[in-house]
């Protein structure tokens, strides 16, 4: 765990959960698993505050607990899971792209609350969608429920583990910590719920509605206080499934750049057919026959079976091995290579990109040469790259000091005498990827600190703007005249309005930069993971 990762985790926890939760989370990240007594003692917080903070972290899967043999419970922070908070906007946007506004709000609610029952999600989302509709229109619970079922069928949401049902004995003491289990077959099974109703709009006051007395309204609300039919069945976002989708999109893009659009559409179809049946950690998709692929191609995509077989053969024969052939039955059995996807297309531009900006185009030329030739002496680098000896030496030492290249000594004799030793420059690609990943974490932390600084410096102006907007909204609701509204708007002067526009533009740039760096982080993490798993 590097200092950059710890700092970024601390900033994410503080921004989303506040100072107390951030203090507990950062302490667990730095120290590792700790019992409750040690957390209270070392952080100096009140026991009740620590318990509530741990509940919040466990609710969002940021902390896990483990019952030790000696009978006490240890809590451990999940640093990688905390870093995934940075990717929440991308998860929500993906859900919107695939399942429209309803899917977007379902994923957003689950991410905001950590775990929720299906009935609670459906009601909350229906209410939020009704708020955005025109007067007289409402969102039906059944429509939201159908979208939730589609998300579960494609494994974007999954059930949370439950406490197993055991026969209760009057004399048995409850365990210090419950053990949560779930059957893998039940992870995506949606309970049969008869959710009937429509979304409700928020009301500005609790006055009498349609002539009904307030007491009668409260009584009607109290009648629905019985537990929902899915009480105890909680759902959460399946982050690994979203990562699998991002990875599939990267594979399709790589195929389109390497081949053409038709090839990428064929690979997209293969990935879509096996998205649920293939594990996110599997090196290849499940074998698919040529006939199955042909039947599953998008409607209206005019391609005959013979042309499809030719494309599949080209993909299987390509040196980058996008597609592999695993048999001849059914017109040929084909799989898509998943494990090595980061080495195919997205990773290499990422590792090249910092070099011209940091060291110049000649350093990038030397770096590409070392990647291609694997090991070279300094004299060979000068000759192959056609760079003068002095410049080549300076560039190699610069990249060596920044850990972009490494130096390997091969002695001719056991005494390691410099005159009888080969000094070979090489690129340790996994090491370079980890170094770039570390810098990406540091960059995101700097961006977050800059955004906090910009907001803090303009705090007074932001509060004034919010007050003016609230006054305008209330006056418009009461039917105020245009002159009155104009007078309220003039409370913010022209220089202040310009300052607000600059602040909004800067914050938007910072947010966009965070998302772009996170895309780089995803590719680098995928590459490092593939090098670890590579046989």
From TrEMBL:
Its main location: nucleus. Residues 199-233 are annotated as: Disordered. Keywords: DNA-directed RNA polymerase, Nucleus, Transcription. Transmembrane segments: none annotated. It comes from the Eukaryota. Signal peptide: none annotated. It is found in: Nucleus. Residues 358-427 form the DNA-directed RNA polymerase III subunit RPC3 winged-helix domain. GO terms for cellular component: RNA polymerase III complex. Residues 212-222 have a biased composition (Basic and acidic residues). Residues 146-336 form the RNA polymerase III Rpc82 C -terminal domain. GO terms for biological process: DNA-templated transcription. The keyword NAD does not apply. Residues 7-65 form the RNA polymerase III subunit RPC82-related helix-turn-helix domain. It holds the Pfam family WHD_POLR3C. GO terms for molecular function: single-stranded DNA binding. Component of the RNA polymerase III (Pol III) complex consisting of 17 subunits. Belongs to the eukaryotic RPC3/POLR3C RNA polymerase subunit family. This is DNA-directed RNA polymerase III subunit RPC3. It comes from Cepphus grylle.
């Amino acid at each position: 765990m590097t200092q950059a990762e710890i700092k970024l985790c601390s900033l994410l926890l503080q921004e989303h959960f506040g100072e107390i939760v951030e203090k507990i989370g950062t302490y667990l990240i730095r120290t590792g698993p700790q019992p409750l007594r040690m957390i209270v003692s070392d952080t100096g917080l009140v026991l009740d505050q620590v318990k509530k903070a741990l509940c919040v972290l466990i609710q969002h899967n940021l902390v896990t607990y483990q019952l030790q043999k000696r009978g006490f419970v240890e809590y451990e922070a999940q640093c990688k899971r905390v870093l995934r908070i940075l990717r929440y906007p991308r998860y929500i946007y993906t859900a919107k792209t695939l399942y429209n506004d309803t899917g977007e709000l379902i994923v957003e609610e689950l991410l905001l609350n950590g775990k929720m029952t299906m009935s609670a999600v459906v009601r909350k989302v229906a209410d939020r969608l009704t708020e955005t509709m025109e007067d007289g229109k409402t969102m039906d619970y059944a429509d939201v429920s159908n979208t939730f079922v589609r998300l579960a069928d494609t494994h974007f949401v999954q059930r949370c583990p439950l406490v197993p049902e055991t026969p209760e004995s009057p004399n048995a003491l409850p365990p210090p910590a419950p053990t949560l289990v779930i059957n893998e077959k039940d992870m995506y099974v949606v309970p049969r719920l008869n959710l009937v109703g429509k979304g409700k709009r928020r009301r500005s006051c609790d006055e009498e509605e349609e002539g009904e007395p307030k007491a009668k309204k409260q009584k009607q609300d109290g009648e629905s206080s019985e537990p929902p039919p899915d009480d105890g069945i909680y759902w959460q976002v399946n982050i690994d499934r979203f990562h699998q989708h991002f990875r599939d999109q990267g594979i399709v893009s790589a195929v389109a750049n390497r081949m053409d659009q038709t090839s990428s559409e064929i690979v997209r179809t293969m990935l879509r057919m096996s998205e649920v049946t293939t594990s996110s950690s599997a090196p290849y998709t499940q074998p698919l026959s040529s006939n199955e692929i042909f039947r599953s191609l998008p409607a209206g995509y005019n391609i005959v079976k013979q042309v499809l077989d030719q494309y599949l053969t080209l993909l299987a024969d390509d040196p980058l091995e996008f597609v592999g052939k695993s048999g001849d039955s059914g017109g040929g059995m084909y799989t898509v290579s998943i494990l090595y996807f980061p080495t195919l297309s997205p990773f290499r531009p990422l590792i090249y990109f910092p070099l011209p900006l940091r060291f110049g185009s000649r350093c990038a030329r030397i770096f590409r040469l070392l990647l291609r030739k694997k090991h070279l002496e300094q004299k060979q680098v000068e000759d192959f790259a056609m760079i003068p000896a002095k410049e080549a030496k300076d560039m190699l030492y610069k990249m060596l000091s920044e850990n972009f290249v490494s130096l390997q000594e091969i002695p001719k004799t056991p005494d390691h005498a410099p005159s009888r030793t080969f000094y070979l420059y090489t690129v340790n690609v996994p090491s370079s990827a980890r170094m770039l990943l570390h810098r990406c974490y540091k960059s995101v932390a700097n961006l977050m600190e800059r955004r906090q600084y910009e907001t803090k410096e303009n705090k007074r102006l932001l509060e004034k703007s919010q007050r003016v907007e609230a006054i305008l909204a209330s006056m418009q609701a009461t039917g105020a005249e245009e002159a009155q509204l104009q007078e309220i708007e003039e409370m913010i002067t022209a220089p202040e309005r310009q300052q607000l526009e600059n602040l909004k533009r800067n914050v938007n740039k910072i947010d966009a930069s965070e998302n772009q760096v996170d895309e780089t982080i995803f590719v680098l993490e995928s590459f490092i993971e593939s090098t670890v798993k590579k046989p």
